[in-house]
Write a structure and sequence with these properties.
The protein has 11 helices and 10 strands. It is of the alpha+beta class.
Length: 323
């Protein structure tokens, strides 16, 4: 039987470029010990090859692992791009929901916001995913999409207008009577009209608001510390991993990578079935004048701290006010 130190020496000699840390060492030996409990004995060669393959796959993937839910969402997004021409920017107009079923299939729905959007014309999309294959449908399938904003249903032409020129497009829809009038503007606070006099009541309200904000942030930081303690990585490691995932999945060039930044004050901890996760916000804005460039916007990444697995990346341009 090969001893642990002999095995590590062989691995170090043959895989010097890979990371052989305590966590991976423990995982490999745990798997070996588990396999050796049955009567059938595994050969040393089999164990060594299996471990090398495992480590090589990890190195090639640059430490990135994606959850089945994430892969399902990616397959659904690609199906809508192929069938309806909806790119990532256009899809950010919709709210995506993934429901995984017990039989291994999944249903992915894309719904438009009800408020301040032409929801009826936009319709909703449904993608059924089974064994890596997707079947997409649209609630407005069969309806006419030609005719600009007067069309019965909004296809890529109209959705592109909403994505990149939201304010003007919405105004045209209101002017044409295609949308219900906007809600009336709220009545101005009389205390803020004319000369503003800062009273003791104002100061008390401000102090209360500041105290509540401070308490909320302390709770947020406590949640992050708890998630770190339960997981195998800290916030900074999660940020680096999340950034790699964004760069890989959205194919960001070197300049975009430099400008992609994390907003730490928006980091929050999540706990699902006692699994610690972090929700991280990244921003990319490429031009100093604030004008939009392809791939600009916000990227929300959810990463499981127990597994290092990327559970979700949500991208929004923010151009339509839904970022």
């Amino acid at each position: 039987m090969m001893k642990k130190n002999e095995f590590q020496t062989i691995v170090d000699q043959n895989l010097s470029s890979l990371v052989w840390d305590e966590h991976r060492r423990a995982r490999v030996w745990h798997a070996i010990d588990k396999e050796e409990r049955p009567v059938r004995k595994l050969s040393t060669t089999f164990i060594l090859v299996a471990a090398i393959l495992c480590l090589s796959m990890t190195a090639l993937a640059a430490g990135l692992m994606f959850s089945p839910e994430y892969e399902t969402g990616k397959i659904a997004d690609q199906a809508l791009l192929k069938m309806y021409g909806l790119n990532a920017e256009v899809l950010s107009l919709f709210r995506r929901e993934i429901i995984e079923h017990d039989d291994g299939t999944a249903t992915v729905t894309y719904s438009p916001p009800e408020a301040d959007f032409p929801a009826a014309q936009m319709g909703s999309y449904t993608v059924q995913v089974e064994r890596g294959k997707a079947t997409a449908s649209w609630s407005n399938d069969g309806k006419e999409t030609s005719g600009g904003l007067m069309a019965e249903a909004f296809g890529t032409e109209q959705l592109t207008m909403l994505t990149y020129d939201y304010a003007n497009t919405m105004q045209l829809l209101y002017d044409a009577g295609l949308l219900a009038p906007r809600s009336p503007i709220a009545t101005p606070n009389p205390r803020l009209q004319g000369e503003i006099v800062w009273t003791e009541e104002d100061q008390a309200e401000a102090d209360t608001a500041l105290e509540q904000a401070k308490l909320a942030d302390e709770q947020r930081l406590a949640g992050i510390a708890k998630a770190e303690a339960m997981g195998i990585m800290n916030v900074q490691e999660a940020v680096e991993l999340a950034k790699k995932a964004i760069v890989q999945e959205y194919v960001l060039n070197a300049d975009q990578q430099k400008k992609l930044c994390c907003e730490p004050d928006s980091t929050v901890a999540l706990f699902d079935d006692n699994q610690p996760a972090l929700n991280l916000l990244f921003w990319l804005w490429q031009k100093e004048d604030g004008s939009f460039t392809e791939k600009d916007g916000s990227y929300w990444v959810t990463i499981n701290l127990s597994t290092g697995m990327i559970d979700q990346i949500l991208y929004e341009t923010g151009l339509a006010g839904n970022g």
